[in-house]
Design a protein that fits this description.
ATP-binding, binds arginine, alpha/beta, ligase
Length: 588
């Protein structure tokens, strides 16, 4: 066939893993030079994981087993078992500063324990404020996220897209990538015909509130399905709009403005920055783009419609020009992907939508590759997510069966946080209380979403989301406020910190966790999984709380080292919070 298989995901193999010296990068480097000397023909990359049991070491490598079986396959008999291979690797490690001990365990695992000196140096190198030791991938990335539809309200699906997309952009930006945040708003298409027609018939003002527009939309759709006259008038209205008739355009623009203002209130509350570039932006590009695809034989005409045939759509092809000549969602996405790859010239293009659109995007990506737009190694990726369920296990709905409005969801979260704080008792002033509950409410909603594996459906539950003892933003916020409070009371530290050392296992565990941030950032960018930052932050908080339960900080022994750990913890928590789009509270 004419479709070329999509390029491999360059990001999975290339770039930062070789060049960036994250913590794991450092260990790999020492290890790889030892492996390279003896076994380079038998192994491509060494594999390093965290030790499940920290008493064995901090990191573990299982490559000796792999090398041993490769040796066996090749008929080499110099080694009797993987432990012997491991011994040769360990012997070859020349790095004497990174590790305190390297031991061989079990069938041939190599366990690494980092030296305290290395840990502390690395902690210090992070500087006063924590920064990634080097930016991850170089290059640029474009993220299409949020993307609600005009004349409809944003629903929880758009909320997920907004929160996940924003977190991914934050990580890219923090790591120094040029990041373009695009809002592919649904602002064009046949639905506008019936909407304009309905509003004209009923003398509805186009700058009505979105909830009114949505009502119009519903009623217009009903009439469209029942009333043939209305249907043909609506079609006329679309044609007028698509030929840029001044009246139709004016009404269209007013409708868009009303929706836009409504979306903006949500973005303001969630503190989201995004550039609107809706479907209408690409409208004029579509005919030439489709011509190009026809000429390249990538799309074909079938029963008057222009179609993308691929394995995912064995039953019905993806239509990219309707038989009446009209354009649709797919037509727009083809023009958009071409524009992004060839005009924006970014290295990586990411779409954040519910998992239900996965096949649509696969077809678009295949088509783009087949047309040669991925030329030069542009990577196209779909970041899908699962549905949000109500506590009844069904898709989240209001009692009357409507989709839940974002505004009421955020209102309720904030209200419940206010109640919670009041009941718990605080010495915050009324004003501080209202700010705190606003911040707590928003961060709870965001974190409840982000900490899940994005692909699994999750159950929305205020009770669970606001549980102080759970894996929740509440818990994280209280942990951050705790360390912030210690630092407010602390004497100012005298740097340089030559006498830093660990006296206690909890101190060391916390320190090792702190220097893992870079690896977590790299993994998040590779897997496009903000939940990795959540796991990191949650573990950081539990480790800090363990440390604090065991170690007296101010006025205790080892005070300078402990204060230093608190400073690093606070700085790292702040970064993780901000990557997740959450504002950390200084006091609670
Ligand atoms: N407006 C669409 C929806 O609500 C999402 C658009 C996603 N982006 C895209 N380029 N198709 O489902």
């Amino acid at each position: 066939g004419s479709t070329r298989a999509p390029r491999g995901r360059c990001f999975a193999t290339g770039g930062y893993e070789r060049t960036q010296r994250t913590l794991i990068g450092c260990i790999k480097e020492s290890l790889e030079s030892a492996v390279r000397d003896k076994f380079s023909d038998y192994l491509e990359t060494v594999d390093i994981t965290e030790c499940a049991n920290p008493s064995l070491g901090d990191y573990q490598c299982s490559s000796a087993m792999q090398i041993f079986s490769a040796l066996r396959k090749a008929g080499e008999t110099d080694f009797c078992n993987p432990r012997e291979v491991a011994a040769v690797i360990v012997d070859g490690i020349s790095d004497t500063t990174t590790f305190d001990s390297i031991t061989i365990a079990g069938a041939g695992f190599i366990n690494f324990k980092l030296s305290d000196h290395f840990i502390l140096t690395r902690l210090r190198e992070l500087g006063k404020t924590v920064k990634p030791t080097s930016s991850g991938e170089s290059g640029s990335v474009l993220v299409d996220f949020s993307s609600p539809n005009i004349a409809k309200e944003m629903h929880v699906g758009h909320l997920r897209s907004t929160i996940i997309g924003d977190a991914l952009c934050n990580v890219f930006e923090f790591c120094g990538l040029k990041t373009i945040r695009l809002n592919h708003v649904g602002d064009w298409g046949t639905q506008f015909g019936m909407l304009i027609q309905f509003m004209t018939d009923n003398k509805v003002s186009p700058d009505s509130a979105v909830s009114d527009l949505q009502e119009c939309y519903k009623r217009a759709k009903e009439r469209f399905d029942q009333d043939d006259d209305f249907k043909s008038q609506s079609k006329q209205a679309v044609i007028k709009l698509q030929s840029y008739d001044a009246d139709a355009l004016r009404t269209w623009k007013q409708i868009c403005d009303a929706s836009r203002a409504e979306f903006q209130t949500i973005y303001d509350r969630l503190n989201i920055s995004i550039i609107e570039r809706g479907e209408s932006y690409y409208n004029d590009m579509i005919p030439a783009v489709l011509d190009e695809l026809v000429a390249k034989n990538v799309v074909v005409e079938d029963a008057g419609a222009l179609c993308i045939f691929d394995d995912d759509h064995a039953e019905a092809p993806v239509i990219c020009r309707k038989s009446d000549g009209g354009f649709n969602y797919a037509s727009t996405d083809l023009a958009a992907i071409r524009h992004r790859a060839l005009e924006e010239k970014v290295d990586r293009i990411i779409y954040v939508t519910d998992q239900g659109q996965q096949k649509h995007f696969r077809a678009i990506f295949k088509t783009a590759h087949a047309a040669g737009w991925g030329h030069g190694g542009v990577v196209f990726e779909h970041v899908g997510f699962g549905v949000v369920l109500g506590e009844d296990g069904k898709r989240l709905r209001t009692r009357s069966g409507e989709t839940v409005k974002l505004k009421s969801l955020l209102d309720e979260a904030e209200e419940r946080c206010l109640q919670f704080l009041k009941e718990k008792g605080t010495d915050l002033s009324a004003e501080e209380l209202s700010t705190a509950s606003r911040i707590l409410g928003v961060s709870s909603v965001k974190y409840a979403d982000l900490h899940n594996n994005r692909l699994t459906a999750y159950t929305f539950s205020f009770d669970r989301m606001l549980d102080l003892k759970g894996n929740t933003a509440m818990y994280l916020q209280y942990s951050h406020a705790r360390v912030a409070t210690i630092l407010r009371k602390a004497p100012t530290l005298d740097l340089p910190l030559d006498g830093l050392h660990f006296e206690n296992a909890a101190e060391r565990l916390l320190a090792v966790h702190l220097i893992k941030l870079d690896d977590v950032l790299a993994a998040t960018m590779k897997e496009l999984a903000p939940s990795k930052i959540c796991d990191y932050l949650y573990t950081l908080c539990t480790m800090f709380n363990n440390f604090y339960a065991e170690c007296k900080v101010i006025g205790g022994e080892n005070e300078a080292s402990r204060l230093f750990l608190c400073m690093r913890t606070a700085a790292t928590m702040k970064i993780a919070f901000s990557l997740l789009g959450m504002e950390p509270l200084e006091r609670l």
